[in-house]
């Protein structure tokens, strides 16, 4: 009997296979522009409810923005709008996590979202379980 990690890896690999053939098993819609829709990504090692999250913000300039999504926010599960901190970049962006997003994080499924547009660009933000 496969362990949880092997099972989840197999699900991920089969979903890629089905996607390549036009069959979709995605957990949420792809992100497009400022619509802040979530794109679920598979986390096999982390635990958001115990350890909080890791955040990766696509770099389009230096200094880059930062964001923290805490374990307390994940466990509270209420929709929340976050500001991607300025960090001397001269502008800010925001992203909104919905109750459904927090449910995904509590189930150790990470998210990929687009920030709002400012200074002529936006950022892809990946939130995974730590």
Compute the number of structural domains: 1
Number of helices in the DSSP assignment:
4
The whole-number mean of residue pLDDT values reads 78
SS-based class: alpha+beta
Beta-strand content bin: 15-25%
Largest sheet: 4 strands, antiparallel
- Share of helix among residues? 25-40%
Radius of gyration: 15 Å
- In spatial order, strands of the major sheet run 1-5-6-2
The number of distinct β-strands equals 6
Order of helices and strands: HEHEHEEHEE
Shape: elongated
Which oligomeric form is depicted?
Answer: single chain
Instruction: Enumerate the spans where pLDDT stays under 50 for 5 or more consecutive residues.
Output: 12-33
CA distance, first residue to last residue: 26 Å
Structural features:
24% strand, alpha+beta, two-stranded antiparallel ribbon, 6 strands, single chain
Report what the structure shows:
This protein has one domain. About 17% of the residues have low confidence. A 4-stranded antiparallel beta sheet has the order 1-5-6-2. A two-stranded antiparallel sheet has the order 3-4. The chain is α+β, with helices and mostly antiparallel strands and 130 residues long. It is 27% helix and 24% strand. The radius of gyration is 15 Å and the shape is elongated.
């Amino acid at each position: 009997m496969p362990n949880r990690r092997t099972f989840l890896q197999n699900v991920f690999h089969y979903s890629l296979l089905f996607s390549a053939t036009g069959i979709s098993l995605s957990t949420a819609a792809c992100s497009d522009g400022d619509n802040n829709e979530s794109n679920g990504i598979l986390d096999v090692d982390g635990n958001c409810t115990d350890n909080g999250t890791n955040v990766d913000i696509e770099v389009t300039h230096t200094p880059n923005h930062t964001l923290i999504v805490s374990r307390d926010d994940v466990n509270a599960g209420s929709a929340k709008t976050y500001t991607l901190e300025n960090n001397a970049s001269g502008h800010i962006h925001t992203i909104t996590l919905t109750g459904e997003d927090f449910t995904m994080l509590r189930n150790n499924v990470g998210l990929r979202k687009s920030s709002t547009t400012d200074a002529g660009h936006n950022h892809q933000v990946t939130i995974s379980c730590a």
